């Protein structure tokens, strides 16, 4: 996850993460680390919920240019 995120941010993209519904806590802790870093706010965001619904909402959003689903 971190290598994909780092590559996307290094290329100038913002990233929206959808953590595992089974194990969301590591991603939530990771986002807290990023919030305390020098990374500008909004570069990495996290949303939680049903993956299928979130994927559909992101795919239909006018600002989202790509989705990497793993």
From TrEMBL:
Lineage: superkingdom: Eukaryota
Pfam entry (one): Aldedh
Signal peptide: none
GO molecular function, one term: oxidoreductase activity
Domain Aldehyde dehydrogenase, first and last residues per copy: 5-67
InterPro entries according to UniProt: Ald_DH/histidinol_DH (IPR016161), Ald_DH_N (IPR016162), Aldehyde_DH_dom (IPR015590)
Name used for this protein in its record: Aldehyde dehydrogenase domain-containing protein
């Amino acid at each position: 996850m971190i290598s994909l995120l780092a590559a996307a941010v290094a290329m100038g993209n913002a990233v929206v993460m959808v953590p595992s519904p089974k194990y969301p806590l590591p991603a939530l802790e990771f986002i807290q680390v990023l919030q305390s870093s020098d990374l500008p706010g909004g570069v990495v965001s996290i949303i939680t919920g049903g993956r299928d619904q979130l994927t559909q909402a992101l795919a239909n959003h006018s600002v989202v240019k790509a989705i990497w689903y793993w």
